[in-house]
Amino acid sequence: MKKRSVLIFTLLFITFGLKTQAQKTQNVYYFNQQDVKVANPDSAYYSRVIQQPDSGSNFYNLIEFYIGRTVKSRGKVSEFFPTLIFQETLIRYFPNGKKLSISNYKKGTLIGSEYLYYENGGIKEERLYLDNKEKIYNPKRIIYKTVSIYNPAGQNLIDENGYGTIDIKQENGDWEKGVYLNGLKTGLWLHYNKKENETYTDEYKEGVYISGKTTKVNGEIIYYQELEKIPEFKGGSSALGKFLVNNLKYPPNSRNSKIQGKVFVKFNVNTNGLLSDFEIIEGVNNELNQEALRVLKLLTPWAPALKRGVPQKTSYTLPISFQLSY
Predict the structure, then answer these.
(1) For the chain, which domains are there?
(2) Tens of pLDDT along 235-255?
(3) Which residues does 201 contact at the CB level (< 8 Å), separation at least 6?
């Protein structure tokens, strides 16, 4: 039978900055405040340590540290490249050492109860994550119910039936107003962002986000149907797949030497949709690495990520697999 080359690609979701760290037999990585990996520890905001699994466990130990300060997070992961897949309990901390959150994961998905805290250590919110079987990205789905919300004074604003009227002003000057019904946001919600000097008006129906608008200090209004939207190749993943299949070529030397593998390429999707800053974060050999880069640099502009209707610059990691079949 004549040998033929088969190119297989795999898509991963956005990585808004890759993280990683280690201990024991360990790897240590450094990141800036935007979660971008840096080589120089002097320019890092935090470090990440990934340790080998404990005896009897299949999960790596993860510990992150604020540089020169306290623990940033502690938990377990089943994978740490190209992105973290959390498992079991993850505890995050503020720089002052107080707990920020206690969360539970299964295969990277939040499950069960999650607890959020104020920076002074007081309880802020308890959420109960729903058992959602939906695997594809859907910004309209209901992910969790709110069990309780506490104001900075420690008063619980939601009753045992999940009803409550929220009017909370944070120490940083932000405030939020709205109604919970059965633990789900309902009706119009107002939020003021002091840092940006913007007011957000969002509409919910039984926990499902309907639409919203941002009112800027100059009176400009931005309307949107989703709070956030991930970047996407125009035409979606199926169109991206066709593009890769039609344009990737198996390099002859690697094909003849039966070299196979997966090339992980990280790049930025800028606010105008143009791609930039291509980087091989894990490769196979120079020939396959360069072919992956060549084809990805041919990609036309994407639809950028959006946050409240405003384009955002994001990083994206795309693994390209080169596999031979006979």
Answers:
(1) 4-8+231-325 (3.30.1150.10)
(2) 999 999 999 999 999 999 999
(3) 188, 189, 190, 212, 213, 215
